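Blinded run. Sample ID left blank on purpose so nobody reads anything into the name before looking at the predicted structure. Input follows.
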Amino acid sequence: PLSSLDNQAKIKLRGLIKQVQKQLGVTAIYVTHDQEEATQLADRIAVLGKHAEEETQLLQCASPNDIYHHPVNTQVARILGSPLINLLPIGLGKTEHEKPAEVTLDWQGTTHYLGVRPNAWGIRPKTQSDETHAPRLSGKIKVTEMLNGNYFAYWSSIQRNEDTAPWVVQVDKPILSGEAVVVDLKPGVFPVFDSSGNYLTQV
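Blinded prediction complete.
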């Protein structure tokens, strides 16, 4: 309903809608394809979608925070967040007594996928030393773009086929295309999805 407005007017009107809804104390249903509208207005978001030729169905209904951090599948994971979540092909070891499973990168297969948001990477030039033991990948920068005041670098790992879509990492400043970098995972908890895209566990 707000698609014809400029961005500043959208933000202002969304805040007004939220304020009126809280003052009246009514339950309201707001239909939108805009993730920013959904996250700003909703206490709970109902995500609709379909697999292959199936009819549209309810995929997940939860708070914006839960949907962002605990998506039920990769389809839902890609709905919130811009740029999109990265999906790394991994091998997943067995868990023991609720300990996190051992994760290994699996370039030859797609048994599982690790969901990594752009701000969950750490990045540095390949020539710069690092004393940490975080899981890391080597790659080259494809392009850097700015979105809402933040820089995002699209990069491809040297272990992957050049034809595959690049991953994206949030960076502090633009990085030249072609620059060799080392990218590692910051400490955190990451969702794991099976080969069908369904949520499996977290590590």
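Unblinding after everyone has recorded impressions. Helices lie at 7-24, 35-41, 64-69, 74-77.
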